[in-house]
Amino acid sequence: MDLAISEQQQQEITALKSIYAEDFKECQPRAWKGAARLPEFILKITHPDTEHATKIYFHLHTIFPRTYPTNAYPIFTVQQPIKGIPDDYVTKLSNFIQAEARQSRGTEIVFQVVTVAQDWISTNIAPPVEVIGSLASEMIKRASEEEQAKKRREEAEAQEEEERKRLFAEAINEQIQADVHRHQIEREKHRARHRAQSDATEVPEFTDNILTQTFDREIIVNELRFRAVKLFHSRQDYLGIVYQAEPICDDIAATLPLEVHLVTFDSHYYTTHQGRKKLKLVQEDVQRLIGVQHGNVIRLYAVKLTLPHSSGAPQLAVLMEQRPQLTLHDLLEDCETLREERASSYLTQILTGLNEVHAADLLHRGLSLHSIGLSSHERLGQSKLVKLLKVSYYVKLLDLHRSNPFGTNPLPALDSMSLPESWLAKDGHDSALIYTKARDIHYAGVVFLQMILGRDVVERFHDAQAALVSCESRRRTRSSAYTLQP
After folding, report:
1. Which pLDDT band holds residue 422 (cuts at 50, 70, 90)?
2. How far, in Å, CA of 100 to CA of 48, rounded?
3. Which of 172, 362, 396, 460 is most buried per CB count within 10 Å?
4. 407-416 pLDDT, tens per residue?
5. Rounded distance between C-alpha atoms, residue 426 and residue 439, angstroms
């Protein structure tokens, strides 16, 4: 639906809500998954004389077609509850409303239709005359009227349901055909671009005003197969831009929680032989990380390094699962410390993830509170699921940025790189650029102490040994206090 038309329809609906208040009821249309929903509501239209408003009224069901008000008029249906209007007059009223709608095509007409319908009621429907009779006869009459009204209501509702199904089936079919056609064209363009793509191709690209990223190999995630993703909702990262992403595949309704990390190396150094060589080493790290498939390590699915032959800056695109919104740093900002049982559970998951990374002949290189994500378990009641973030290649990019800067963003100060000298791992005293498995495990221990004693533990204690002594002292104190309780 055209955005201008959609906005115009919503403005009219807002005005009608304000005018008719409790006489306006918005419907929740039933539609197939993925199909556009047509605006739909019901107006209670009463006799214009307030004295007769409770005795003479009907309900007008209204649907806005996709091209209203420019090329179509609303679909009006007179429906139950109806009071004070004979059946034969209901048909006349409906025909009158349809005729009025056809004459006013091209304008916003709902308020006008309501007004002329009230005028028609005032002219053609005589208010009922109250006749005083016996209580028994009144009860019999009322019961008969209610039974007839119920029957008419059921018949009308059945007709309305059939009509609604027909209208929505037509609208949904139209939307599905349009979506299928658009996706077919989109896939063909990606396939053609992939066949003709050269090393000089820059990524990402715009296709029909949609930002996309194409990868060299077919990607399989949860049985979905695709080579390209749509990019949206960008945010700036220290080393580039992070986009949320959705796969472009045969299943038009398919969605996956994905994101793309795009880094542009706009420095002359990275166009030299030595600079390109270092970028290829980063790409190889990502390719090995793609093979690490474990619940405690963020999943990477694809990587693409673009190295233009002539002008243009190299670009690195990494497709991964969407990172958790909450990090361990965020959690400790709120609650300062964690219970020992919870901290031990997190540490176990951290070490399990590190073991998977080390088994792939990789190192984390920058383990810290910021690089540990926390997501919810599928089963309720369990502690958070730990995911190691920014594994290996991210710190390699930081090291490259430190020696040969690219981009305009300032270099972030990682927790593991800003520790006091007495808190560094043994091999960290020699060089900050020496990374080992033992160093990864050492920083896992620092994270554990931060969970137990607070983020500022490295400032309050001279070294890790002093912090451990404090932990043991607290544990003995709690144990003694528990023992002395009566």
Report:
1. confident
2. 18
3. 362
4. 666 655 554 4
5. 8
- The number of CA neighbours under 13 Å toward the Cβ of 175 is 20
Report the C-alpha gap between 444 and 449 in whole angstroms. 9
> Span 97-106, mean pLDDT?
86
CA distance 475 to 457: 17
- Are 331 and 374 a contacting pair, CB within 8 Å? yes
Asked whether the predicted pLDDT for residue 380 surpasses 60, the reply is no
Per-residue burial over 199-214, b = 16 or more CB atoms within 10 Å of its CB, e = otherwise? eebebbbebeeebbbb
Residue 241 or residue 238, greater confidence: 241
Query: What 8-state DSSP symbol labels residue 389?
Result: -
Alpha-carbon span 70 to 5, nearest angstrom:
8
Which whole-number Å values give the CA distances from 178 to 171, 174, 181, 184, 445, in the listed order? 11, 6, 5, 10, 56
Helix, strand or coil, per DSSP, at residue 412: coil
Write down the pTM of the prediction.
0.56
Buried b / exposed e over 432-469, threshold 16 CB at 10 Å, is eeebeeebbbbbbbbbbbbbbbbbebbeebeebeebbe
Q: Can you read off the two tokens belonging to residue 445?
A: 């221990």
Tokens of 486: 């009566």
Q: Which of 419, 398, 440 is nearest to 237 (CA)?
A: 398
Residue 458 has, within 13 A of its CA and on its CB side, a CA count of: 19
Domains of the chain: 3-174 (3.10.110.10), 202-323 (3.30.200.20), 324-486 (1.10.510.10)
**Looking at this protein, which amino acid is placed at residue 256?**
L
Tokens of 139: 């009860």
Residue matched to tokens 């793309």: 260
Query: DSSP 3-state assignment of 418?
Result: coil
Average pLDDT of the residues in 18-29: 86
Distance of CA 339 to the CA centre of its chain: 33
Q: Are 362 and 292 in contact (CB under 8 A)?
A: yes
Using DSSP bridges, classify how beta strands 300-306 and 258-264 pair: parallel, antiparallel or unpaired: unpaired
Residue type, 151: K
Helix and strand numbers (H, E) in the chain are 11, 14
Confidence of residue 373 (pLDDT cuts 50, 70, 90): very high
Strand segments, DSSP code E, in 267-399 are: 300-306, 315-321, 326-327, 372-375, 385-388
